[in-house]
Amino acid sequence: MSLLRPMLVVLMLLLGGASLAQDLPRVPPEEVGLSPERLERVGRWLQAEIDGRKIPGAVLLIARQGKVAYFESFGRRDGSTDVPMARDALFRIYSMTKPIASVAAMMLVEDGRLALDDPVARYIPEFASVSVGVEKPGQSGADATLERVPARRPVTVHDLLRHTSGLTYGFFGDTPVKRAYRAAGVDPDANDSLSTFASRLASLPLHFQPGSTWDYGVSTDLLGRVIEVAGGMPLSQFLKTRLLDPLGMKDTSFYVTEPARQARLAEPLPDDRVLGIGAVIGNPRVARRAESAGGGLISSATDYARFALMLRNGGELNGRRILGPRTVEFMTSDHLGSAIARTPLYLPGPGYGFGLGFAVRTATGEAAAPGAPGEYYWGGAAGTYFWVDPRNDLVVVFMIQSPRQRAAYRTILRNMIYAAISR
Length: 423
Fold this sequence. Notes:
The chain has 423 residues and is an alpha+beta fold. It has helices at 4-21, 36-51, 97-111, 157-162, 176-184, 194-202, 219-231, 235-247, 259-262, 301-312, 325-331, 406-419, and strands at residues 57-64, 67-75, 91-92, 131-136, 145-150, 213-214, 298-299, 316-317, 320-321, 341-342, 352-354, 359-361, 376-379, 385-389, 394-399. It folds into two domains: 23-102 and 233-419, Beta-lactamase, CATH 3.40.710; 116-231, Up-down Bundle (Methane Monooxygenase Hydroxylase, Chain G, domain 1). Strands 2-1-15-14-13-12-11 form a seven-stranded antiparallel β-sheet, sandwiched between helices. A two-stranded antiparallel sheet has the order 3-7. A two-stranded antiparallel ribbon has the order 4-5.
């Protein structure tokens, strides 16, 4: 009897690990050309950051050749408690929602219910007569004024997917258009339906002429309303029935209302809740009307790995096809080229273009961290991050809740993981 209880504990742990994997194949790192010793360096670095109280905890999943070779949790789940971080912890993924919504839109393109060159006004009539805000210098020291000029062409679905719509974020920067956004209270996380959000957005001027400039903003949030109209159902329902459930992403949703799932929510350190964009980390425990396609989802490392592996596999996972391989290839190609300008805050950075929902690497060099042409990535404001590198057959999902460390850790993580590739 004395041996039975420890054996049961071990069995439960093994079964728990298997259930977390959710039928994703697992292999030792060396089997897929990853150095176990060098991966241990990554774990030691993360633990040192936790011991230094820079982050409370983290979850890191690395897959190569379609198989999970590293999947570990570190530290604490909640920055104000001693509860250990678990591999099934739930994270606010913020802008890592954008690739998911973009895939949903491309599913409708494959259905023949949406086309990239469709004017957004076909689905949201209020966008039929948008204007562009132009800053006019004030006379004799007076403040600059905002004038509206007609848009030279309609905003298209393609523009929404690649952030060339002229729509922006109002919560950072200080141009007249951004001030107009703030004055109007346009916020995709406000307690509004997507229909109401779209109507309010249409009344404001665009920041740039459609198709002229990459400007990070609420384009994907508006795309969420297009998905609702073209898909014939609320955004959350479309995502669940067409994408999340078929992929087995049971822990991905806009809100976490069930007590058992609420107990799995990761939280940042108490002094690290400011997103740095005039907002603080939100509370997803209470459901609201807002469903932000640009930044509203909660997910786990395993769930997001299933999404990323589906992309790595050319649109299919475990026999469930989400997109055709040519569609994935199209999405992960650069859609900016040299003709489209970039704002000074060009988040992808040197060596990257932008595809349909994520940054796309265009050069081995130029960027400040390793990677290969064809790799694509995106991250979230609270610290989550993922990338898929087809040339090196690598998928990485990194989950933390630390707005303060989100940028610095991404470069360090890339350096250490690429250094662990042995063949």
